[in-house]
Amino acid sequence: MDGVNLPKITTDIPWGHNIILLEKLRSPAERIWYACQTIQHGWSRNVLVHQIESSLHLRQGKALTNFKRTLPPPQSDLAQEALKDEYAFDFLAADICERDVERGALDHIQRFLLELGSGFAFVGRQHHLEVGGEDFYLDLLFYHLSLRCYVVIELKAGAFKPEHAGKMSFYLSAADDLLRHGDDRPSIGIILCRSKNKVVAEYALRDSGKPIGVSSYRSTRALPEGLKDALPGIRELEEGLAPDAKTPPR
């Protein structure tokens, strides 16, 4: 962060935000990082507190991916920076079950964007694709405004398994053929699992020709009061995974 003017930054954010940076962070470099992110994304004080307490600076851009091999620069670097190694889904219940779901997920999934990060535009859940006369459904489909590409997200209630990468590769091939427009860049995939074995994930992605990232999520900390109603629970998010919630074929 050489050349960054800390006094100038602090005048660009509300005083209450500055107090939070001073009280919750000891490192000047971390204060600058969070101040810059606040300016860029327009975070409220509650969101800033949540991002600090969830150690966003340690997670942003650290996802396990094969982007450097499967995407051209500078898209590979931009895509890497857009993903997190671990997502702080503090709103998730511990007793997750993909089959135990509730309705009304769509409104909650839109709020899910807060932790997903900036640039993600929600397209749909259980997005239908027809391939070879068969029906397939993407758990969550987004379009990233900065990367200019579709982002397919698979949400898993358990640990990462190698077969998840193969399924995602298939989905990305289909998305590129059926959804991608002439000006769009190659679609990327994110596999979100409750946990992952880094070595297993690296092997699974090693020979894949499609850009895929593998991230985990946790639900160990409590959210600030101001955010509790703004984010979904796991059962609500996973409505998109339930067989009876799939979008009917068109």
Q: What do the pLDDT scores average to?
A: 79
CATH class of the largest domain reads Alpha Beta
CATH architecture of the largest domain: 3-Layer(aba) Sandwich
General form: elongated
Determine the structural class based on helices, strands and strand pairing. Answer: alpha/beta
- Number of DSSP-assigned strands: 7
Percent range of helical residues: 25-40%
CATH topology (level 3) name of the largest domain: Trna Endonuclease, Chain: A, domain 1
SSE succession:
HHHHHEHHEHHEEEHEHEH
Low-pLDDT ranges: 96-107, 230-234, 240-250
Intertermini distance? 50 Å
- Radius of gyration, taken over Cα atoms and rounded to an integer in Å: 19 Å
User: Treating each run of at least 4 consecutive H or I residues as one helix, how many helices?
Assistant: 12
Q: Tell me the domain tally.
A: 2
Q: Please state the oligomeric state of the protein chains shown.
A: single chain
Biggest β-sheet description: 7 strands, mixed
Question: What percent of residues are in strands?
Answer: 15-25%
